[in-house]
Design a protein that fits this description.
globular, mainly alpha
């Protein structure tokens, strides 16, 4: 299945876009949603797009999937960059361990429901 047709990919994308529209255009902020929804959606969206690009260029096409190690490295990268590096460089960012938990849940969602090959369907 193409990643872009997978509801576990495009629903988080739509939810992310709606949330961004409400926050940026309508100035509607729901505190818990504002703090954690983007973090929950980040890994499925970014790794989903990355997986689709790899499938376009990889010889195995629809059977290509990321390994557990690759998904874990994506999780570590996001956590390190957004919860350690950026808060040290800018007051605009805040380190929060619950953000890391949201990245972890997003990584599990990606690995379990998006990172699947045609053979498993």
């Amino acid at each position: 299945m193409a990643v872009f047709r997978n509801p576990f990919f495009y629903i988080p994308c739509i939810v992310f876009w709606i949330n961004q529209y409400l926050e940026k255009v309508q100035n509607i902020f729901i505190p818990f949603v504002h703090a954690y929804l983007d973090d929950l959606m980040a890994i499925p969206v970014v790794l989903g797009i990355s997986l689709q690009v790899f499938r376009w260029i990889h010889p195995l096409k629809d059977t290509f999937i990321f390994t557990k190690t690759q998904v874990a490295m994506g999780l570590v990268y996001f956590s390190f960059l957004f919860e350690f590096v950026l808060p040290k460089w800018s007051d605009r960012y805040t380190a929060d361990i619950l953000d890391v938990a949201c990245y972890g849940v997003g990584a599990l969602i990606f690995y379990s429901f998006i990172n699947i090959s045609e053979e498993k369907i």
